[in-house]
Amino acid sequence: MTDLILSESLANARARLDEALSAAGRPAGAARLLAVSKTKPAAMIRKAWQLGQREFGENYVQEALDKQAELADLDAIVWHFIGPLQSNKTRDVAEHFSWVHSVDRERIVRRLNDQRPEALGPLDICLQVNISDEASKSGVSLDALPGLAEVVLTMPRLRLRGLMAIPSPAEGLSAQRAPFARLREALEDLRERFPEAPLDTLSMGMSADLEAAVLEGATMVRLGTAIFGERQTR
Ligand SMILES: *Cc1c(COP(=O)(O)O)cnc(C)c1O
């Protein structure tokens, strides 16, 4: 992808988000753009940063660490870990990211808390919810969600910010909205249970379903393909 195309696709993604917010009757800036850069080279991230993008999402720990090392000179860049997280990788994530969106079990919660360097301040956490109820997908069930949230809230080095989901692909706005509505309701329920918690984040919506997610209250949309183009299979 050339620099010119990247600058156009990033501008298009921003315009698309602005339009979706406006169509939903929500204020400009009510949802922000997370640029999902997995499999894309550090040079492309640098270019997006030069165009004003600050938040980037990565899925694979070693790939992300390599790119972070290459991009260490970029001010105010914010790294979000959004991929499946194995226990043996929690230390790298706790030490090198600001956010984790894919937390779905207690063992991972405890390790991230124990391994988070105090000097970095709290690690922002979204719990990934299995919202489409597929046996194969990761994510905590809606039933187990309040219990897991309670565990995160007892951890001094973690800050529970909200929920994330990756619904199974669906065609059409209303089919796409249904799982996002369930995630929104789950966040509302957690806010009632834990009124002191800083629960302000609904991480939902990707290149194919951003509009549906914004209609249901997404505060962070995670766009990969729409910004950086198609990915080669890894
Ligand atoms: C890859 C990925 C995205 C981006 O998906 P696109 O369809 O390319 O926008 C968003 N969220 C997660 C968790 C991902 O793994």
Describe the protein's topology.
Layout: H1 3-23, E1 32-36, H2 42-50, E2 55-58, H3 61-70, E3 78-81, H4 90-96, E4 99-103, H5 106-115, E5 123-128, H6 145-153, E6 158-164, H7 173-193, E7 201-203, H8 210-215, E8 220-223, H9 225-228
Parallel strand pairs: 1-2, 1-8, 2-3, 3-4, 4-5, 5-6, 6-7
Helix pairs in contact: 4-5
Bound molecules: pyridoxal-5'-phosphate.
Please supply descriptive tags for the structure shown above.
234 residues; TIM Barrel; 9 helices; binds pyridoxal-5'-phosphate; Ala_racemase_N; PyrdxlP_homeostasis; pyridoxal phosphate; PLP-binding_barrel
Q: If you had to describe this structure to a student in words, what would you say it looks like?
A:
This protein has 234 residues and is α/β, with parallel strands linked by helices. The chain is 41% helix and 16% strand. It is built from nine helices and eight strands. It has helices spanning 3-23, 42-50, 61-70, 90-96, 106-115, 145-153, 173-193, 210-215, 225-228, and strands at residues 32-36, 55-58, 78-81, 99-103, 123-128, 158-164, 201-203, 220-223. Strands 7-6-5-4-3-2-1-8 form an eight-stranded parallel β-sheet. The radius of gyration is 17 Å and the shape is globular. Residues 36, 38, 59, 82-83, 166, 206-208, 222-226 line the site of pyridoxal-5'-phosphate.
